[in-house]
Amino acid sequence: MTESPPPVVEMRGISLAFPGVKALQDVDFRLFPGEVHALMGENGAGKSTLIKTLTGVHRPDGGQVVLGGDEVAFTSPGEAQHAGISTVYQEVNLCANLTVAENILLGREPRRFGGIDFPAMRKRAKEVLARIGVHIDPASSLGEHPIAVQQLVAIARAIAIDCRVLVLDEPTSSLDAGEVAELFRIMRVLRDEGVAILFVSHFLDQVYEISDRMTVLRNGALVGEHLTADVDRRTLIAQMIGRDLGALEAIEDAAEKRHPDGPVLVHASGLGRRGAIDPFDLEIRAGEVVGLAGLLGSGRTELARLLFGADRADSGRLLVDGAPLRLRGPRSAIAAGIAFSSEDRKGEGLVADLSIRDNLVLAMQAARGWTRPLPRRTKDQLVEKYLKALDIRPANPDALVRTLSGGNQQKVLLARWLVTEPRLLILDEPTRGIDIGAKAQIQQLVTTLAAEGTAVLFISAELEEVVRISDRIVVLRDRRKIAELDGSTTGVDEVVELIAGGAAPEKVVS
Amino acid sequence: MTTLAPRVPSRFLPVLATVALFVIAFGVGSARYDGFASGQVIANLFIDNAFLIVLAAGMTFVILSGGIDLSVGSVVALSTMVTASGLQAGWPVSLVIVAVLLIGSTLGLLMGLVIHKFDIQPFIVTLAGMFLARGLCFVISVESVSIKDRTFRDVATAAIRLPGGVTITYNVVIALLVVAAAMHVLHRTRFGRTVYAVGGSESSALLMGLPTTRVKVGVYVISGLCSSLAGLLFSLYMLSGYGLHAVGMELDAIAAVVIGGTLLAGGVGYVLGGLVGVLVLGTIQTLISFQGTLSSWWTKIVIGVLLLVFIAVQRTMVRR
Ligand SMILES: Nc1ncnc2c1ncn2[C@@H]1O[C@H](COP(=O)(O)OP(=O)(O)OP(=O)(O)O)[C@@H](O)[C@H]1O
Ligand SMILES: [Mg+2]
């Protein structure tokens, strides 16, 4: 990394206020060619907003943006793209109704005879996808694919054109280790070609692995810019959250002390669905945290969807409290006290145009049925309780969900299910896009819930997390349950080995 | 990390369902009535509905983008009015055509700009446009104005012979050309694919850097242009201009598009679906006229039921 070239992007004194929130206050930011720059900060610190100010989604109230020496004021993301800034925004911002190829190339598609040259477009899309190690049919529609693949398609779109600035806002939030490695390989290639890369992630390991420089934001203000090599994790975290961090370590061993021996709440025997997940047996006790580990596409989400009735099982049966339960759909699961916080928060789950309170109340009411209204006092108390428990910011129940930062939306989604006080809580990637402070809080919350007798099925691509909080770990591979391990005696390495498909023998610990 | 999803033709299902419906309706007719299954009956479907085919093509753009255009029936009426009175005043046919098309697309442009700039529901804006265009008709004349221009009458009555003794009018040729052009633009150009993108998710389309403004306004221009062209075809069909022509035709156009499998929510559908939708409506009409004893209002009742069924089917398809 050389210090000599001038920055390709320079943002000076950027300020931006939304009604009621000062999202950015006098922020300076520099991005050099040929380096990976990590933008760090808690949920709601202003990272995405700074990015959107750079790419013309928001117009700053004050300050200037300089690109390649010239001051610019983009009025739309399209203009920024033309100027050579390629962006993957947080959340998947693509069109599910179009094909994969169109999502990658629309706006710069190959043409012929006054129309789009579809064969060439598919070919080109296939090449770009292959570059990041994805092999899917470019002619399939995007909506058919899981979130992680959609995220990869969004990345493919960003790298499909020559750009001088590549912005990646939490591109890895749903990706597996292998995919992340593939992405980093591409990022390094581009970096070496002189592209300036802006990278956002809440995974510190990733940040330390890939970035050369970092800028830290807190509450919309600049805390500092450092070379990555110069700051250790403790300092970085302290800078991000503005205090030292004890909570994280506190839960480390919380799981180990627990030996849940509540009654069996849910018992699946031979439950399965062709093409989604092979028949499996699974027991979850009240007060137990069961972790699901496996690669993307190993059937994690599919298993959860069966338990929730989102997909219909075509074999086996499900016992709840020892009595068979036929799930005719999510409604009957909810009625049986099963909650499922989905990984697709944009598509399912939240009503973006309603306030936090309304979203939570909707969930409460739906779970109770419309004939038994809750008193207003109770509602307010519950809303209050979870706003605080999850540290949702702003802690204003009337804030519209649409205006929250990505991580805070994730927390609202979680709260939405918690207020229904379920007996079995299925969490699919609950900590995706959540900063480490909040992650600790959520893990803490899961432990507390379990201690109070809730059964939790915890799904996460992050193995450390699964291993840390689970009492029992179920390992999936190729849509099959391959092992069940005791959470207190198992280490991450062991799980990794199983997942990777080393010829590890089937091992079952009750 | 590789997912090889099989290509499900589920996106074609609604269109195929409509085609099946058409075949069934036609089959029923052929089985019950002599002379139903003739080439000329099919040709008449096109002749009697050429203007509706053009309207449906324009409407498809708007609905795909997630909008709606209620003004099209009134713009048809206004176009017949301008055509008839222009010809009456002795304007050359070419000038009349240019004027009509210009008026239609300008109205569309204005509505599109208002919708976009002030961020008002398309429903409201085009409702206003509907009243405006209807009102303008009566500013020109409250009476029906008949068309006596020679060239115009010649084109209107000219019959094109097809093999098998079937004849069609120029209207049909124009309508089919419009459908072909719409298919090209919608399915094969950047503008068209951006219409789908905007209908799928406008905020995503914007973040993808696509020209959403151009598309959101553009679809109303196209719909306006199609409406005025449909108005010209309607003038040829009726050989008169009248402020009360085409009352409620916007609803027929919307019905045809929806029955043709286009999602009212936007983002999913095909131009060809709208064409088949029009044919389904036409067949029902023909069936009822062949039947003879039922009042023509039954057409509306059947269309109503069909619409409900199709919308219900679409809902379940979207939820999947
Ligand atoms: N459109 C909007 N209207 C109102 N407030 C907004 C809007 N967009 C963002 N905010 C607010 O601006 C602040 C910064 O949000 P931003 O999305 O930039 O956070 P972030 O650092 O990207 O967080 P995360 O890690 O959760 O993605 C938050 O308080 C958020 O609620
Ligand atoms: Mg963000």
Automatic annotation (TrEMBL), chain A:
Claim: Repeat is one of the keywords in the record: yes
Tagged with keyword ATP-binding: yes
Superkingdom as given in the UniProt entry: Bacteria
SUPFAM superfamilies, per the entry: P-loop containing nucleoside triphosphate hydrolases
Cited Pfam families: ABC_tran
Segment forming the signal sequence: none
GO MF term set: ATP binding
Residue ranges annotated for the ABC transporter domain, each copy included: 9-244, 249-503
Keywords: ATP-binding, Nucleotide-binding, Repeat, Transport
Name this polypeptide is given: Sugar ABC transporter ATP-binding protein
Organism: Lentzea cavernae
TrEMBL record, chain B:
Keyword Disulfide bond tagged: no
Protein name: Sugar ABC transporter permease
Topology versus the membrane: Multi-pass membrane protein
Compartment(s): Cell membrane
Superkingdom of this protein's organism: Bacteria
Sequence intervals crossing the membrane: 12-31, 51-78, 90-114, 120-142, 162-186, 217-239, 251-284, 296-313
KW Cell membrane (keyword) present: yes
